[in-house]
Amino acid sequence: MTALIGGFTTPATHSAHAFRGVMTAMARPGTIETLHGAMPPAPLSPAAGAVLLTLCDADTPLYLAGDTDTTDVRAWVAFHTGAPLTGPETCAFALGRWDALLPLSRFSIGTAEYPDRSATLIVETDRLEAAGATLTGPGICTTAALSLPGTGDFRDNHARFPLGLDFLFTCGGRVAALPRSTSISAPKDC
Amino acid sequence: MTDHAYNFAYLDEQTKRMIRRAILKGLAIPGYQVPFASREMPMPYGWGTGGVQVSAAILTPEDRFKVIDQGADDTTNAVSIRSFFERTAGVATTTRTKEATVIQTRHRIPEDPLSEGQILVYQVPIPEPLRFLEPRETETRKMHALQEYGLMHVKLYEDIARHGHIATAYAYPVKVEGRYVMDPSPIPKFDNPKMSGCPAIQLFGAGREQRIYALPPYTRVVSLDFEDHPFEASKADHACGLCDATDSYLDEVIVDDTGTRVFVCSDTDYCEGRQAQGFRGKDTA
After folding, report:
1. Domain of residue A34, CATH code
2. Contact between residue A175 and residue B24 where contact means Cβ atoms under 8 Å apart
3. Set B48, B71, B241, B265: catalytic member
4. Mind telling me how many Å the CA of A5 is from chain B's nearest CA?
5. What angle do CA A128, B16, A11 make, to 5 degrees?
6. Fewer Cβ within 10 Å of end Cβ, chain A: N or C?
């Protein structure tokens, strides 16, 4: 029965607020936003649940990586979004912890003529703060900082611009984003 | 006064999700035109159906919405779109640039500088800057993929050869972050410099042509030019007849049957704000 609860109670306004948060995060890499209204089954975070409810539907194949691929999560996703589940090669969205999503080469990075036909990765993290790797690029006035699970993979991803993957990092109710346009330099203290 | 016969902001949720996904990809690839499944809207193509769909997908009930048409808040297009969202989304509206959180615009950027919390939504008729040079979509896609923008420079060069200067005065092509050549929508080239490094999020919607593109805040936007013919943001060489502003974009208005002309600010909010501060132009009675 857990599949039926935990969705947006007022879908139009909840998803409007959640999207504003996700859009702000994507437009201003390194900014951390809070998303409300979703209570997905464990191990999904409320923020990851809100992202799924806001962006996923029958048109977006979804890949559940690693420990997110449970019976409860499958039933919740099916009831609330109707997103077809698929493998990493054909997904529009992928959800999981960083280790479970690697290697990134499995995901679609788009084509030269249609770079938008690429996957968006929703990365569940235990730590999300505006510290760590230094970010520069569109959406950032001077520099921003974000705790990333690595730097090499994101640098390689940026090097392929305009092709590449876009990332949403979720931790509890909070979300931050790293689009392919952002350039990354390693934390200074490492 | 929300019209409860409609879903919040008119569009159904599945359509909004599709538009929202396109907006996110557009923000991730600044200047790239993302195809989207544009819907029929209750207004004709060319009246801002792209901008309206983008606004519908991003509005929240707490937003304060402003609509301008060539800078003016009181023209038919602006009034009807503003009342459309008053009815279907119940959002507050304003004509003050500084108070608005979402501004939908047809062919102008407000004179007052935009701030971090604001979103500017452009109505775009022809999103493809190369379209009048190459009519085939398959070819223009390839040209963007290969950064094959020589044709655009040839066009600007032919302007110089024929007129002695770059004669393109509106929809002046720009290059975004050194990658995509983008159509800034038919804003006067006077407004082009305001796009670069703008603290607000800029979203572009083309309804008939089914494209969405975006500029995140602080994106580098450069107007195309030549070393010996640098880009110049031009305007009519007058002061506003109502508020005496010399720094704003001016409309030329014929006011009687004998052809008397006055120049007035195209941005009505900016002009009214200056008049409220006591500035008077030479044409005020």
Report:
1. 3.40.50.11310
2. no
3. B265
4. 19
5. 70
6. N
